[in-house]
Amino acid sequence: MFDVILAILAASVPPGDGTDGLAVQAPTKQPTQTALTAEPQEATGRFTTALEVKPILAATQANWIHVREFDGQDLLYVTHLWSWRCGLAQIKLSVNGAAPEVWPLPDCHLEEGFPNMIQEEDGLPYRGYPLDSIQQVSVEVTYDDLTVEQLTVGRNGQPLQ
Predict the structure, then answer these.
(1) What is the tens place of the pLDDT at every residue in 63-119?
(2) At 37, is the pLDDT very low, low, confident or very high (cuts 50, 70, 90)?
(3) Structure confidence by residue, pLDDT tens digits, 140-156
(4) Can you say how many angstroms the Cα of residue 124 is from the centroid of all Cα atoms in its chain?
(5) Torsion 84-82-60-148 (CA) sign
(6) CB atoms within 10 A of CB 124
(7) CA–CA separation, 108 and 62 (whole Å)
(8) With left for phi above 0 and alpha for psi between -120 and 50, is residue 56 left, alpha or beta?
(9) d(CA 152, CA 18)
(10) Are 122 and 114 in contact (CB under 8 A)?
(11) Which residues partner with 153 through β-bridges?
């Protein structure tokens, strides 16, 4: 039930940031590439490990990304992945076959009751692209146990492979 509540909360995050409906592109600053290390896998009931989030993401692959046309552009959302980020080490996305790009994940809010909650200071879980330019997106999810799952989806979010 907790996972359903988090999914509903994540889906209800509005796309804007209060700038009169204008889309704002998330920062594209590339993080310094560091070696990923596996984290301990203990079920906490807080959905903060791969052990806990992997089954949820496996069952909801069609929700990993979303493309929305808004204000003359395509917005590529990763809200669903951000909503389960505490069990992730990294996400990479490739649009239309381009080189994969690491999309920074906000920190988990372990001091909060809902550590995966997206807060205002986390930034925006989307980026803008030219209208109708996104045809497919390849997603590579690295869980915090360092297992990797890949998926390629069409513009509508449905898996192509």
Answers:
(1) 999 999 999 999 999 999 999 999 999 999 999 999 999 999 999 998 888 999 999
(2) confident
(3) 999 999 999 999 999 98
(4) 10
(5) negative
(6) 22
(7) 23
(8) alpha
(9) 32
(10) no
(11) 137, 159
Query: Token digits for 93?
Result: 């996305």
CB-CB contact of 143 with 53 (8 Å): yes
HEC sequence for the chain: CHHHHHHHHHHCCCCCCCCCCCCCCCCCCCCCCCCCCCCCCCCCCCCCCHHHHHHHHHHCHHHCCEEEEECCEEEEECHHHHHCHHHEEEEEEEECCCCCEEECCCCCCCCCCCCCCCCHHHCCCEEEEECCCCCEEEEEEEECCCCEEEEEEECCCCECC
Name residue, tokens 């552009």: 73
pLDDT score of 146: 94
Minimal CA–CA distance to 115: which of 152, 139, 84? Answer: 84
Q: Any idea which of 2-6, 85-89, 129-133, 149-153 has the lowest mean pLDDT? A: 2-6
